[in-house]
Write a structure and sequence with these properties.
This protein has helices at residues 7-35, 43-56, 67-90, 107-118, 128-131, 134-164, 174-199, 227-236, 257-281, 285-312, 348-361, 376-387, 398-418, 431-457, 459-462, 469-484, 499-528, 545-580, and strands spanning 210-213, 219-222, 423-424, 427-428. It has 581 residues and is mainly alpha-helical.
Length: 581
């Protein structure tokens, strides 16, 4: 797999990881100061606004919450967000900023879309420019891009407090964390990235769509809209919901190689930086570095594998004029130029594969190439990255709290192996934490497998499968993997805009978000109530290379044991069929 990666591919991957790391460290330390309530270089400007928001919302920052109160705040806020967005989409035809007079959404599509954006999934069963008005895109979706990402960051901060505090039932104030995540992190970064993208040609306008002439003289409607502002938070908040149906493959949404690199960096920037936020907030930066290293140890080989598989292409599609009439076998017979189907020539294979890996390692879900057109094993890479539980960087906040759940499982397994009580950062890990961690890890897996089986076996699910055989099964498996793990990308060959898929995928998104989030808060509350125990000879160091490898092994083992049979029925069989010809 790695042999097919060109020097250009390796250099682009190395450059990306270097720039990501250089930017993530200072951003992570800055966010640690923000969530600790310390002064930052933006405090002079934003503290008065922060205080004003607390006053009008009747929030008392000093009033901290138990984990149950914190969870109640998260649920009520998300429920209110869902209701407002659902109603907005149902009645968008009667609202302003709709120059194309686009109609209201159907109830099932409005439900699916509202759930999708409230859960930070951003699955789209519709074409953005042909379905949603400017008002729906800005006031509905873009607002949720901010606040849903902030909810994930807030829950992470609550978990960190649970690890660092002792003999208390308080985890901070959800409303304060929500405001600070938006005000000090997401808004300034989004403004910066939006201006940068605008300089590259990403459009930002309220004008109506324009009609142009094709080379053949036919009329063509060219969609416009306020794209740059949505694009920035779409990437930074690991949202992924594109303004246009073709997402970041659209030239108005991603016009240049530089805009492509900016957007790629934005996808992983906050999830990567939060590793260093974690290290700073727990008082041991080595812990954050270890988690960042574990993420990179999975991400880099998976990305390289995707690049190599796509650059190798289909061995049966050979260049015309080969010495034996086009019947060569082996490496010399590889598809000339690699598999460019479904990819933008502006970006090529390395950037398309890197994007596919980054967007599914994070719960971003945006695309700059069609994953359905990847080679079978090349398309399996983004599928597997989601099936790891969206903890290899993952969503803004949600990725790291998911990774910390795996850390808790890892220290528990290590404790069983050596016969000692497991502990992490001075907190003993007991039966309650392991039960909650098991729910958080296994429930999304169950959702994926059960819902995929239901769709594959019922006439309602089969009606949306347009490609027969292994490819069609892979599309269904990908859709429910994406929904249950709150990613939002798709193989795109599945007819999902109907009541069956809109309802079932919507329920997957809801359960996949909140039945991970709630156990995490329960773990935080349980750990905060415990006393910190001093290190001893039996304490497992959790910042060493050995622990990093052990952690990666647990993540991969859970993914392999859970999904291997399903993967064998989809991409693996399709790969064997491709080799057979």
């Amino acid at each position: 797999m790695f042999l097919g990666v060109t020097a250009s591919g390796w250099s682009q991957l190395a450059l990306y990881m270097c720039v990501l790391t250089v930017l993530a460290v200072p951003l992570g330390l800055y966010m640690a100061r923000v969530f600790a309530g310390e002064r930052t270089w933006l405090s002079l400007l934003l503290r008065p606004l922060e205080g004003f928001l607390y006053r009008i919302a009747d929030v008392r920052p000093a009033d901290e919450m138990t984990w149950k109160d914190y969870a109640t705040g998260v649920i009520l806020f998300s429920l209110g967000s869902f209701v407002l967005l659902f109603l907005l989409l149902l009645f968008q035809g009667h609202l302003p900023l709709n120059p194309q007079a686009l109609p209201n959404l159907t109830p099932d599509l409005a439900f699916n879309t509202a759930v999708s954006f409230v859960t930070n999934t951003n699955w789209q069963s519709y074409g953005g420019e042909s379905t949603l008005s400017y008002f729906s895109q800005m006031v509905g979706l873009t607002v949720q891009n901010f606040v849903s990402a902030a909810v994930g960051m807030s829950v992470l901060v609550a978990l960190i407090r649970g690890l660092t505090r002792q003999s208390t039932d308080r985890l901070g104030n959800f409303w304060v964390d929500l405001v600070r995540a938006n005000l000090y992190v997401l808004l300034p970064l989004s403004l910066l990235v939006a201006v940068w993208l605008g300089s590259q040609g990403v459009i930002q306008t309220f004008d109506a769509y324009v009609t142009g002439k094709t080379l053949e003289g036919a009329d063509q409607v060219i969609a416009l809209g306020p794209v740059a502002s949505q694009e920035a938070i779409k990437m930074l908040g690991t949202n992924g919901g594109g303004f246009f149906n073709t997402n970041s493959a659209h030239p108005f949404e991603n016009p240049t190689p530089l805009s492509n690199f900016i957007e790629l960096l934005s996808i992983l920037l906050i999830p990567a930086a939060l590793c260093f936020t974690f290290g700073k907030m727990v008082g041991d930066r080595r812990q954050g570095v270890a988690i960042f290293a574990a993420m990179a140890l999975v991400f880099v080989p998976m990305t390289a594998a995707c690049m190599g598989l796509e650059q190798s292409g289909n061995p049966h599609l050979v260049a015309v004029g080969t010495s034996d009439g086009g019947n060569m076998e082996g490496p010399a017979a590889a598809q000339a130029g690699g598999n460019m189907e479904g990819k933008e020539t502006r970006f090529g294979i390395p950037n398309s594969a890197l994007w596919a890996a980054a967007t599914t390692a994070a719960s971003n879900g945006s695309v700059n190439a069609m994953h359905d057109s990847f080679t079978p094993l090349g398309g399996m890479v983004p599928l597997v990255l989601m099936q790891f539980g969206e903890v290899i960087y993952g969503g803004a906040g949600s990725g790291l709290y998911g990774m910390l759940v795996f850390v808790i499982l890892t220290v528990f397994i290590a404790g069983l192996m050596v016969g000692r009580t497991p502990e992490y950062l001075g907190k003993k890990i007991g039966a309650f934490e392991i039960k909650m961690a098991s729910i958080a890890v296994l429930l999304p897996c169950a959702l994926v497998l059960v819902c995929t089986a239901v769709a594959a076996l019922t006439p309602w699910g089969q009606a949306g499968i347009y490609n027969p055989g292994a490819q069609g099964f892979s599309e269904v498996l990908y859709a429910f993997t994406s929904a249950a793990n709150n990613n939002g990308s798709a193989f795109a060959g599945l007819g999902a805009n109907n009541p069956f898929y809109n309802a079932l995928l919507g329920l997957c998104m809801l359960f996949g978000r909140f039945f991970v989030l709630l156990p995490v808060l329960a773990i935080a509350g349980s750990l905060a109530a415990k006393k910190t125990v001093p290190e001893s000879a039996g304490t497992l160091p959790t910042h060493t290379p050995l622990f990093v490898v052990f952690l990666v092994g647990v993540i991969i083992l859970v993914g392999v044991l859970t999904y291997a049979p399903a993967l064998a029925l989809g991409p693996v069989i399709e790969h064997l069929n491709m080799i057979k010809g």
